[in-house]
Every structure is written in structure tokens, then in C-alpha cells.
Amino acid sequence: MTTQATVLVTGASTGIGATYAERFAQRGHDLVLVARDRQRLEALAARLRHEHRVAIDVLPADLTLQADLDAVEARLRDDTRIGILINNAGMAQSGNFMQQSAQDIVRLITLNISAVTRLAAAIAPRLADAGRGAIVNIGSVVGLAPEFRMSIYGATKAFVLFLSQGLSRELEPKGVYVQAVLPASTRTEIWERAGIDINTLTEVMEPGELVDAALVGFDRREPVTIPPLHAAEHWDALESARKALLADLRQAHAAERYRA
Ligand SMILES: NC(=O)C1=CN([C@@H]2O[C@H](COP(=O)(O)OP(=O)(O)OC[C@H]3O[C@@H](n4cnc5c(N)ncnc54)[C@H](OP(=O)(O)O)[C@@H]3O)[C@@H](O)[C@H]2O)C=CC1
Ligand SMILES: CC(=O)[C@H](N)C(=O)O
């Protein structure tokens, strides 16, 4: 048994989530692993228990299903050992906006937005009361890039970034750290699941490198971590431009260029 916070990782059966689980186990944290595939979760849990001597619970759930989401929310609300949420489960889309069915759209938004938001909302009050803890939300650089023409997926990831930045401002004064992590193309099953051939991509990061970099940002308590961004000053410039824009919003009158 450890005295460190237990970490609940969603989408822990493979890819980035499984890598987070492995890294936190290496750090000596107990884990709660969430995804749909019970067998894969059990196999990962057995290996990590054996290799790292940590306690691991498996909580199979389809986060697009109300009852399953309710159960994970309840766990986050009630299990006071859980001090870190890795809000990672997500899916991508293939094809452009007009090729998405209503069902595809709802599933994407339900997993990438609703579940992420509800799980953060389930744990935030308890962490704020305790005055410690962390929520890590996995976004994507696609959320900064309408140019990529993954409009719904990108919009869900823009939401994740905004949500994280807002929560950071609300929760940081209460001792709760909120991090948005924005990966770019990473070698996981997400591509195949979305019907995209990963071999068509020119550059792909390995999940281990991605998560290790994200954890450097985590340890530094960075609010936004973008492992594939080499020149950090580009992000700083974007933030500065955004703040300058906000400072120039004058609510009483329309700008000169819009006056008839
Ligand atoms: N790989 C990449 O290039 C990038 C990924 N990201 C983001 O990283 C996050 C992780 O993606 P990645 O590891 O690549 O993807 P994977 O497809 O490899 O893994 C996704 C994980 O989410 C779980 N999952 C999928 N649907 C559900 C569901 N309905 N309910 C519960 N769990 C579910 C899957 O497990 P199971 O099938 O067992 O449910 C799996 O564990 C996502 O949010 C993604 O958007 C961001 C930028 C780039
Ligand atoms: C499939 C993707 O677009 C990927 N998950 C990403 O966010 O870059």
C-alpha cells in the first residue's frame, strides 16, 4: 500500500491511457483503470501489480452509456483515495463533416466532451475540499487547427482545452492542479479505430515519449502542455494575443469598422 494518491485513468486499456497507467504505477501510485475492454484492463492490471507492487482496481465502463458513466462518477465522488484523474478516453473521426452520421456525431461528443466534463465535475468538489489533487485532460493539437478539417473532433478538443484553462483558473486557488495535454499524432490504435491508415502520416510520436513529456509538464504544474511544440514562445505569443484581444473588447459600442 502507498500513501500517494490513487490515479483513475480513463481509456486505460491501450495507447496513451495505458502508458499513463504504467508511468503512475512506476511512480508507486495505486490505480483505477477504466475502459470498455475488461480483459485488456485485467491483463494490464495483473502486469502492473506484478511489476510495481501497487494496488489496481479495474472498472470496466462504456463512458457513452449513462449507467456506466454514473458508476465512474460515483467512484470519483466517493473514493477519497483517488486524488488524480487522467481524463484520457477519447475517439477520433474519419471523413469530413458532411460524412458524419447523427449517431457518429453524438457518440464523439458524448465521449470527448460530455464524459470528460462530467468526470471532472464529479471529482472537482472533493479535491477542492481537500485542497489538493489533479485533473489531467487529454486534448489535441487538432483543437488548435481548423485547417486539419476534422471539424467535430477538433471542436471537441478545443472544448477540452477551454474547459481545462477555465477549470485551472477556478480550481488552482483551491489547491487543485488542472493540466491540458495536447498531443499531436501519436502511435496508438486511435487511427485504425477511426479508419485512418497511420502509415499515411509523415511524423508520429511514440506514446511513451508523449506521456513522459506530459509528465514533465505535470511535475512543473504547467496548465497547458504541448509535447510536440518545440518553440514554447509560439504558445506564449498566442496567449499574449488572446489577452490583448480581451483587453480591447469594449462592450458599450461596436467597433468603428462596423458603424454604418
Ligand atoms: N493518438 C493520437 O494521435 C492522439 C490522441 N489524442 C487523444 O488521446 C486520447 C487517448 O487516445 P489514444 O490512446 O490515441 O487512443 P486509443 O484508441 O489507442 O485508446 C483509446 C482508449 O479509450 C478507450 N475508449 C474508447 N471508447 C471508449 C468508451 N466509449 N468508453 C470508455 N473508454 C473508451 C479505449 O478502450 P476500450 O476500447 O477498451 O474502451 C482505449 O483505452 C484521446 O482523447 C485522443 O483524442 C490526442 C492527440 C493525438
Ligand atoms: C486521430 C487524430 O486526429 C489524433 N487523435 C489527433 O488528435 O491528432
TrEMBL record:
<comment type="similarity">
    <text>Belongs to the short-chain dehydrogenases/reductases (SDR) family.</text>
</comment>
<dbReference type="InterPro" id="IPR036291">
    <property type="entry name" value="NAD(P)-bd_dom_sf"/>
</dbReference>
<protein>
    <recommendedName>
        <fullName>NADP-dependent 3-hydroxy acid dehydrogenase YdfG</fullName>
        <ecNumber>1.1.1.298</ecNumber>
        <ecNumber>1.1.1.381</ecNumber>
    </recommendedName>
</protein>
<dbReference type="InterPro" id="IPR020904">
    <property type="entry name" value="Sc_DH/Rdtase_CS"/>
</dbReference>
<dbReference type="Pfam" id="PF00106">
    <property type="entry name" value="adh_short"/>
</dbReference>
<keyword id="KW-0560">Oxidoreductase</keyword>
<comment type="function">
    <text>NADP-dependent dehydrogenase with broad substrate specificity acting on 3-hydroxy acids. Catalyzes the NADP-dependent oxidation of L-allo-threonine to L-2-amino-3-keto-butyrate, which is spontaneously decarboxylated into aminoacetone. Also acts on D-threonine, L-serine, D-serine, D-3-hydroxyisobutyrate, L-3-hydroxyisobutyrate, D-glycerate and L-glycerate. Able to catalyze the reduction of the malonic semialdehyde to 3-hydroxypropionic acid.</text>
</comment>
<dbReference type="InterPro" id="IPR002347">
    <property type="entry name" value="SDR_fam"/>
</dbReference>
